[in-house]
């Protein structure tokens, strides 16, 4: 079993790239591989319910569908704590989501701990 890390920095302003960051790890978890997603910059806004429910990229399907599939498969989600704070993402907006607020050292640890990393 391999471990894949997806680092997403594009947010709702680039819906196709943002949605691809959630779509690409889905086949990996479907095949039994482990996936972690680290969201930074504007990507932290992707976990707002309004964005999850309304964002679709060109040819990528619904962000909500990809997110729900990843959660069901046990994918781990990390959000940049600094990016979240700068964009006013509150703890209440993340309540009930399997998310860990993280600092840059966590991203470095994740890169070193995973077999492959991709960025969107």
What is the straight-line distance between the termini?
Answer: 23 Å
**Would you report the number of β strands?**
7
Helix fraction, binned, reads 40-55%
CATH topology: Hypothetical Protein Ychn, Chain: A
Indicate the CATH class: Alpha Beta
Morphology call: globular
User: Low-confidence runs (pLDDT<50, min 5 residues)?
Assistant: none
Number of helices: 7
Q: What would you report as the Rg, rounded to the nearest angstrom? A: 13 Å
Class per helix and strand makeup: alpha/beta
Characterise this structure.
It is a single chain. The chain has helices spanning 15-23, 25-30, 49-54, 63-72, 81-86, 91-94, 104-113; strands at residues 3-8, 34-39, 56-57, 61-62, 76-80, 99-102, 116-119. It is α/β, with parallel strands linked by helices and 120 residues long. It has a single domain (3-119), classed as 3-Layer(aba) Sandwich (Hypothetical Protein Ychn, Chain: A). The strands form 2 sheets. Strands 6-5-2-1-7 form a 5-stranded parallel β-sheet, with helices on both faces. A two-stranded antiparallel ribbon has the order 3-4. A hairpin with a 3-residue loop joins strand 3 and strand 4 (61-62). Helix 1 (15-23) packs parallel to helix 4 (63-72). The longest helix has 10 residues, at 63-72.
């Amino acid at each position: 079993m391999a471990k894949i890390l997806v680092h997403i920095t594009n947010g709702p302003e680039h819906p196709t790239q943002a949605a691809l960051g959630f779509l690409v790890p889905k086949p990996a978890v479907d095949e039994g591989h482990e996936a972690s997603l680290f969201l930074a910059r504007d990507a932290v806004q992707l976990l707002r319910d309004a964005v999850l429910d309304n964002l679709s990229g060109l040819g990528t399907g619904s962000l909500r569908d990809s997110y729900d599939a990843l959660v069901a498969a046990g994918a781990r989600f990390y959000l940049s704590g600094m990016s979240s704070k700068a964009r006013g993402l509150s703890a209440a907006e993340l309540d009930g989501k399997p998310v860990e607020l993280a600092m840059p050292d966590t991203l470095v640890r994740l890169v070193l701990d995973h077999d492959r990393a991709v960025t969107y």
